[in-house]
Write a structure and sequence with these properties.
about 5% strand, three-stranded mixed sheet, about 450 residues, 19 helices, mainly alpha, single chain
């Protein structure tokens, strides 16, 4: 018997030792990745960080690492790991270092919201509402700017597209250099607006991103208070089931968060559809936009931004989280419509009382967000109101391979030319891309 208990104790000690060592190894790998954050930014964004950008990276590292424990080691915070996992993906979308810092900070604050107690959440709700006011204001300004650029009689994108086609017809498929300059300028404008909206999309509670997982159940109900539950207390799971009551403050806050992200996502797809999508269907124009990009547009990563949405447009259009967010938007609309119809000011029904207590500020916010969603071209297409959309289907592997292959051969040709220049006997060699690069 003693031998049995001794073996059990030894086994348990071994398990604990392996667990601790495993955790220490994980911790070391995690801290090592964070310490190399500058290199990751420079590699993915293809830039050398300036002083301001280095400051933002330092702030990101400080946020991610959290506080030090008494033994002077950084304490791993699971919610911070979740925020860190976003960073590399965001750099590949072409967002600036400052925008990634804003999103990282928002992600950590979102985790605090989900981890807070009910009493703490009541206090947090006020600051979250103030944040939503700012997000909606920024989104509204960007949407108005987009609508002005694609809907007015001075539609620059259509004007450039028509001008390019005319130039190619008259000049043996060649494009006038001035038209290419205008195209690259409008690429810059597109990337600037899209990055701003992409940041707005992810400055909230990241609820719409959670909708992308089939393991997350989100339902709307007026029967119970807003509540969330977890199946396991794992590394990054914020909830496994979320029951939202659209009549209590927390529930309204969560639904509005989803709607702001939905409105942002739809606005980005609308802008692409009406501005650059027509250019990217043409092989030669796509080369001009994704490969032959001037320094002014490269600095903003316009080529990265546009390539990312071009290659993933079909998947964004058929995204599960977008459809789930639209369904939640519709459910809230139905509930509010019924309450508006059946409730009167003298009603003693708790649901009616809660409905009439919604503040004018919240009503105005919802009205603005609902308007952006309802007027979206992509939204109307997804719910079947607009069946005329036939453009921009899935990007084929052939098209992706062709673009990558061309870029590869451009680089190879450049390296060969550079090497030839050195061995040909020049006293000095200036490394630069000539005017024919990427042509």
């Amino acid at each position: 018997m003693n031998n049995f208990f001794s073996s059990v104790i030894v086994t348990l000690l071994l398990i604990i030792s392996v667990s601790v060592n495993g955790f220490n190894n994980y911790e070391r790998r995690y801290v090592s990745k964070i310490n190399k954050l500058e290199k990751m930014f420079e590699k993915n964004l293809n830039i050398e960080l300036d002083q301001k950008e280095q400051k933002y990276v330092s702030e990101i590292k400080r946020l991610i690492k959290g506080k030090k424990s008494p033994d002077e080691r950084f304490r791993i915070d699971q919610s911070h790991i979740a925020a860190f996992e976003w960073i590399e993906d965001l750099t590949k979308k072409g967002l600036s270092v400052q925008q990634i810092y804003d999103i990282t900070r928002a992600n950590i604050e979102a985790s605090k919201f989900f981890e807070s107690s009910k009493s703490q959440r009541d206090i947090i709700n006020k600051s979250r509402l103030e944040m939503q006011v700012k997000r909606v204001s920024k989104l509204y300004r960007n949407v108005r700017r987009i609508n002005k650029s694609v809907n007015s009689s001075q539609n620059k994108f259509k004007e450039i597209f028509d001008g390019i086609n005319e130039s190619r017809e008259k000049n043996n498929d060649q494009i006038h250099s001035e038209l290419l300059k205008q195209l690259h300028k409008n690429m810059y404008i597109f990337a600037l607006s899209r990055n701003q909206i992409n940041t707005i999309l992810r400055e909230g509670l990241f609820l719409m991103d959670e909708l992308g997982s089939s393991q997350r159940e989100v339902i709307i109900s007026v029967q119970n208070k807003t509540r969330m539950s977890k199946k396991n207390r794992g590394v990054v799971e914020r909830f496994s089931k979320l029951e939202i009551n659209p009549l209590d403050k927390t529930g309204r806050l969560m639904l509005r968060d989803i709607k702001i992200s939905l409105a942002s996502s739809l606005s980005m797809l609308d802008f692409y559809e009406f501005s650059l999508g027509q250019f990217l269907e043409d092989d030669k124009l796509r080369d001009a936009m994704l490969l032959d990009v001037p320094a002014s547009s490269r600095k903003l990563k316009a080529d990265i931004v546009i390539r990312e949405i071009y290659e993933n447009y079909y998947y964004y259009l058929n995204s599960k989280k977008t459809i789930r967010a639209i369904n939640l938007f519709h459910e809230q609309q139905i509930i509010y419509k019924e309450l508006s119809k059946n409730c009167h000011t003298e009603s003693s029904d708790p649901k009616c009382l809660a409905f009439f207590q919604i503040s004018d500020q919240e009503k105005e916010l919802d009205q603005q967000v609902n308007s952006i969603i309802a007027n979206s071209f992509i939204y109307k297409f997804l719910i079947g109101e607009n069946d005329k959309k036939t453009k921009f289907q899935r990007v084929s592997i052939k098209e992706r391979s062709r673009d990558k292959m061309k870029k590869h051969f451009d680089k190879v040709t450049y390296r060969i030319s550079k090497h030839f220049g050195n061995i040909a006997g020049s006293d000095t060699f200036v490394s630069r891309h000539g005017k024919l690069f990427d042509m």
